[in-house]
Amino acid sequence: MKIMNRNLVCAALAAAVSTSAWGGIQIAIGHNPNDQATAKFHFPGIPAPARNDPATQAQFILVDGRRDANGGNLDVLHDGRAPTEEDQPGDNFFFTAGTDGGRLLIDLGEATDVSRINTYSWHPGARGPQVYNLYAGQEGDTHFVARVQRGTDPGTCGWKCLAQVDTRPKTGEPGGQYGVSIHDPEGVLGRFRYLLLDIFRTESGDGFGNTFYSEIDVWGRGTPAPTEVSSNPVRRQTVPIEGGKYEVTLDTTDTPDLQDWVEKEVIPMVQKWYPNLVQLLPSDGFEAPRKFSITFSKDMQGVAATGGTRIRCAAQWFRGNLKGEAKGAILHEMVHVVQQYGRGRRGNPTAGRVPGWLTEGLTDYIRWYLYEPASHGAEITSRNLARARYDGNYRITANFLNWVINTCDRDLLLQLNTTIREGRYDEEFWKKRTGRTIQDLGAEWRAALEKKLGDGASPKPVS
Ligand SMILES: [Zn+2]
User: Fold this and answer.
1) What backbone phi and psi angles, to 5 degrees, belong to 63?
2) CA 29 to centroid of ligand 1, rounded, Å
3) Closest CA to 71 of 278, 310, 371, 339
4) CA–CA gap between residue 139 and residue 114 (Å, rounded)
5) 3-state percent breakdown (helix, strand, coil) of the chain, nearest 5
6) What is the CATH code for 236-449?
7) Ligand 1 centroid distance, CA of 306 (Å)
8) Rounded Cα–Cα distance for residues 163 and 37 (Å)
9) According to the CATH classification, is domain 19-220 in 1.20.58.760?
10) Binning pLDDT at 50, 70 and 90, where does residue 148 land?
């Protein structure tokens, strides 16, 4: 773990022990190591996350830094729900990979006698601990709210520094669950409308040092006694594939309404197709993941996404597409689980970048031409012919790859997969395989489409 170099804008604190006192303010830190963490977020001397604290009604605003789209949005920080397991990106907020945190503004809506501020996080690795400085601002001082971008010391524009938090253990594993509670045993922390968290990553050894923040609570004097979050009953089942050779875990905790469809439609499809995909995409010495998971998330936007071996599906989109594209969308993500292209690139420092349109096109080729050819989902018609470019991404590129496979290279899928996975892909690949550049292939494919569609579009003789 590397030590960060950053400007300390609060007075330095002594090493983070379980409780530090600073100017009357106490910072209690709780850590449940991986084997002791439960969905209850219980720490000795630290209140569990609440679901009726003033922060649930507050506005959370990202004033600096970028949210990681693999995680939840800012709502997860004050929705009164905590994650139920150690690595649930969708139930945590975190800044995007490769960056060093950012700044988060909490607007309580009115001046509030703040008695306690609690922050909770959970991750099995270096993204578990919390490192941030906490500032507070009074109502009426709205001029400073806009000026809190990185590079500006909040202390110079009206913010009061309340605490400097660093829960990284001096020794031992950083992973697990953390609870931080900031309060003043003598009374309230102050009368504030705004809070500002200046958040830093916990390490810079790799791109994944941004903390998984699970929940932020703000207690006010005179507000109702906090009620602990009630975690949803967990609905998660693990199903064997090929007699236990592989395993998939399906999580419908968020979406009881999808459970029936998952059991009747998704599980049989996954059991049949995961082994097929493994067979379609082999390479020397490569073993496809033995375990993966599919989680339906109520908060996720878009359609679906895969990180490593975790597939996340946006419940809202799935609900609207159960009879149409839903299962195919899961198959698409399963292809990503089998591809594991990131792994090959990480092991090979000279690996070139693989264009996203190619990875997605290859994935969609498998989906539309091998999994559900009868749907004709990647067909190009005179309506979308204008958008037919070999790098048109997803189903357009899939159509192009299908043409290359049918006209000049039956072995393309296998070779392309191996080349990408082993980090050897560049445009020369096309030359070597087909004798033509990808641009030439693209032009030929396009011409063939035009010819086909042109013929089809010509007036038919009246019979
Ligand atoms: Zn994809």
Assistant:
1) -100, -15
2) 40
3) 310
4) 13
5) 30, 25, 40
6) 1.10.390
7) 8
8) 25
9) no
10) confident
Q: How far, in Å, is the centroid of ligand 1 from the Cα of 333?
A: 6
CB atoms within 10 A of CB 156: 10
Query: What is the C-alpha to C-alpha distance for residues 149 and 169, in angstroms, rounded to an integer?
Result: 29
Per-residue model confidence as pLDDT tens digits over 174-194: 999 999 999 998 889 999 999
Cross-strand bridge partners of residue 307 = 310
User: 171 with 93: CB under 8 angstroms?
Assistant: no
Q: How many CA atoms lie within 13 A of 90 on its CB side?
A: 23
Type of residue numbered 286: F
Residue 341 CA to ligand 1 centre (angstroms): 12
CA torsion, ordered 253, 256, 257, 261, to nearest 10 deg: 80
CA angle 26, 28, 30 (to 5 degrees): 175
Q: How far apart are CA 10 and CA 18, in angstroms?
A: 19
| Spacing, Cα 67 to ligand 1 middle (Å) | 20
Q: 343 CA distance to ligand 1 centroid (A)?
A: 16
- Token digits for 425? 């892909």
Q: For residue 326, report the distance from its CA to the centre of ligand 1, in Å.
A: 14
Average pLDDT for 351-367 = 93
- Domains in the chain: boundaries: 19-220, 236-449
Look at residue 314 and give its three-state secondary structure: strand
In angstroms, the CA 132 to CA 104 distance is 10
3-class SS at 367?
A: helix
pLDDT digit string, tens, across residues 243-301: 999 999 999 988 989 999 999 999 999 999 999 999 999 999 999 999 999 999 987 88
Is beta strand 190-199 parallel, antiparallel or unpaired with respect to 102-123? antiparallel
Q: Which tokens belong to 75?
A: 């709502």
Token pair belonging to 450: 């035009």
Tokens found for residue 239: 């199903």
Distance 340 CA to ligand 1 centre (A): 12
Tokens (6 digits) for 407? 């006209």
Ligand 1 midpoint to CA 18 (Å) = 44
Beta-strand (E) ranges in 342-389? none
CA of 364 to the centre of ligand 1 (A): 8
